[in-house]
Amino acid sequence: MKLVLPMAGYGTRLRPHTWSKPKPLVSVAGKTILAHFLDSFDSLSLFDEVVFIIGYLGEQVVEFMGEHYPELNARYVVQPELSGQSHAIWLAREGLQGPALLGFVDTWIETDFSGLGSEGVVWVKEVEDPRRFGLVELAPDGWVRRLIEKPQDPQSSLAVVGFYYFPQVEKLLDAIERQMAGGGMLKGEFYLADAINLLLEAGVRVRAQPVEVWQDFGTPAAVLEANRYLLDHGRDNSEHATPRQGVRIEPPAYVDPTASISDAVIGPHVSIGPGCRIERSQIRNSIVEADAHITGSTLTGSLIGRSAWVADFAGSLNIGDSSEIWGDP
Predict the structure, then answer these.
(1) What is the pLDDT of residues 145-156, one digit of tens each?
(2) Mean of the per-residue pLDDT values for the chain?
């Protein structure tokens, strides 16, 4: 089975962090978003090939995969113009045949990917405000009738979470070709939902698979929420964090063993990356990425980029890599 991962977007909702790195390489709960995604599978040996569709700063993804997942059979396709999800998959069409799982790396779910069978699958979750999401509408027989993008008068509350399975991905590619030939663009993009609707109209059967857990990594608030969830569910290493004099770690928290911390309170729901230096500070509900330096500060609800420096500041911050914030001593 192939795993196809469109990730060529700019990640504008997660700036300033995505000015200097692609969104999949933002850190959450001690690992990059991409690593959380890949590690969510019981075994990557399930896939004979993983296709990464990259764009802006995509060379960093190639370098990361080579360093951390060298055993993976990875193929990289560049999407130079952001013309939509369908366009991205069309660029990767070479060698795509048979069963394929399509996923968007900025979403994370808990589900069983075994026994997918001979029918298509779209993973969904019941939501309170369906107008904010792309939705699945079911036919009376329970099969998917169509996908709808953020309707103002929703007839369904099943949100599409960003995972799809196609037992014969060639049929999806045929639908995408028809979609693109017909010029079916919305706001300059070819949307995957429109291609899937062409499949459904052609009689391809797709079932909706509900999930209980769905975490999004699209915005700073969502990243902090995902950080809290992951720390609450297995990523807490506070019990094994190296004891440090004058330091109190309130679980759940993730502290990289190479971080240097003194005279500080860390947690709850804090992730500290490798090489960080934290002195005379209190940090809660925050993510501090690699090699950041925080001194004399009290932070809550903050995202601190790699190699950033924060001194004598109290409050919430959202600063990117190599930034500096100086407050009042």
Answers:
(1) 889 877 666 677
(2) 90
